[in-house]
Design goal:
Elements lengths: L2 E3 L14 H9 L4 E4 L10 H7 L2 E3 L2 H7 L2 E3 L6 H4 L7 E4 L7 H10 L2 E4 L14 H18 L21 E5 L3 H12 L3 E6 L2 H10 L4 E5 L2 H8 L4 E4 L25 E4 L20 E4 L2 E4 L9 H22 L1 H7 L1 H4 L2 E4 L2 E2 L2 H7 L6 H5 L1
Parallel strand pairs: 1-2, 1-4, 2-3, 4-5, 5-6, 7-8, 7-10, 8-9, 10-11, 11-13
Antiparallel strand pairs: 6-14, 12-13, 14-15
Helix pairs in contact: 1-2, 6-7, 10-11
Catalytic activity: L-alanine + NAD(+) + H2O = pyruvate + NH4(+) + NADH + H(+)
Family: Belongs to the AlaDH/PNT family.
Keywords: NAD, Nucleotide-binding, Oxidoreductase
Length: about 375
């Protein structure tokens, strides 16, 4: 199978979908790899390293899409890429269809095969291709939140961990999954008082056991959240429903309960956001204020630390990508239930129910497409 890796062109997205080591693995399995020139530079990989590993460097994104049977990316295609996508071309990347109706319609119209990293799912319901970026995003949420709590950045002017004789900041984390757990680890490590909420009592019991004494767990419901937001200095949205829009746990009216200069970091923004007033921002313009509340809603947070993120992501995606290349997407998805759940749009049909439900579109059972 011919593999193509275009350069990411989303705002300040410096990750790349394949490392030179990944190229070597594809070549070992007999697959030619075409990399767009400078695609890996943002992550610290020069064209010469890819060439040494056996890749062919192409000068333009158009050339990569034209030759490839499988496109391996990090982020969803943006508008300028839509017309480059060919019928039956396999795209393996993060899509987050439930947060973008135009993207959903575009992929339907292109008759592409869209296999989404974020819905590849193991039997235990874990999401192996979302985990590494969730770990990065969770840790970054505290790093960025701490920065924007500084007064020159619009925040309350609070040091997250406080000092002797001065109380530390209060951090509220909505969701106890991978993002929330990593955020809690970072925040507690910096000395903040942390409260993490979730609807799963078993998860809260686990977090109670593994997190240090400066972390509390609380059952997630509207009443408790309304009480907690008034006391919090930094609030992290870390809610995920695989393939679907995140629910709004913080609504517009709750901003009036918060202290001026409170910082909101919505890690779920690429799935529609769990904070009603959050809309996607970029690394170039990461924040905005509403009613004196700072909103940080960058949709590709891990893109700010591309070296770490690229290595973490490709460690997880490469084994699946090799399977797709060796067997073709139909056989690979038939034999591997994890990959099968990654299929979202196939040849003009939506085969992932949560995506169809998000936009009121027709759902086609995957069995009809694979048979």
């Amino acid at each position: 199978m011919i593999i193509g890796v275009p350069k990411e062109i989303k705002n300040n997205e410096n990750r790349v979908a394949l490392t030179p080591a990944g190229v070597a693995e594809f070549r070992k399995n007999g697959h030619p790899v075409y990399i767009q020139s400078t695609a890996g530079v943002g992550s610290g990989f020069e064209d010469s390293e890819y060439e040494k590993a056996g890749a062919t460097i192409l000068p333009t994104i158009e050339a990569v899409y034209e030759i490839a049977e499988m496109i391996v990316k990090v982020k969803e295609p943006i508008t300028s890429e839509y017309a480059l996508i060919k019928e039956n071309q396999l795209l393996f990347t993060y899509f987050h269809f439930a947060s973008s109706e135009p993207l959903t319609h575009a992929m339907i119209e292109r008759n592409a095969v869209c296999l989404a990293y974020e819905t590849v799912e193991k039997a235990d319901r874990s999401l192996p291709l979302l985990v590494p970026m969730s770990e990065v995003a969770g840790r970054m949420a505290i790093q960025e939140g701490a920065k924007y709590l500084e007064k020159p950045m619009g925040g309350r002017g609070i040091l997250l961990g406080g000092v002797a004789g001065v109380k530390p900041a209060n951090v509220l984390i909505l969701g106890g999954g991978i993002v929330g757990t990593q955020a809690a680890k970072m925040a507690t490590g910096l000395g903040a008082n942390v409260t993490i909420v979730d609807v799963n009592l078993n998860r809260l019991r686990y977090l109670e056991d593994v997190l240090p004494a400066n972390a509390d767990t609380v059952m997630s419901n509207e009443y408790n959240i309304r009480q907690l937001v008034s006391q919090s200095d930094l609030i992290v949205g870390a809610v995920l429903i695989p393939g679907a829009k995140a629910p709004h746990l913080i609504t517009r009216d709750m901003l009036s309960l918060m202290k001026k200069g409170t910082v909101l970091v919505d890690v779920a923004v690429d799935q529609g956001g769990c904070i009603e007033t959050c809309t996607p921002t970029t690394h170039e313009n990461p924040t905005y204020e509403i009613d004196g509340i700072v909103h940080y809603c960058v949709a590709n947070m891990p893109g700010a630390v591309p070296y770490t993120s690229t290595l973490a992501l490709t460690n997880a995606t490469l084994p699946y990508a090799i399977q797709l290349a060796n067997k073709g997407w139909q056989q690979a998805c038939t034999q591997n239930e994890e990959l099968k759940k990654g299929l979202n749009v196939v040849n003009g049909k939506i085969v992932y129910k949560a995506v169809a439900d998000a936009w009121g579109l027709t759902y086609t059972p995957l069995e009809e497409v694979l048979n």
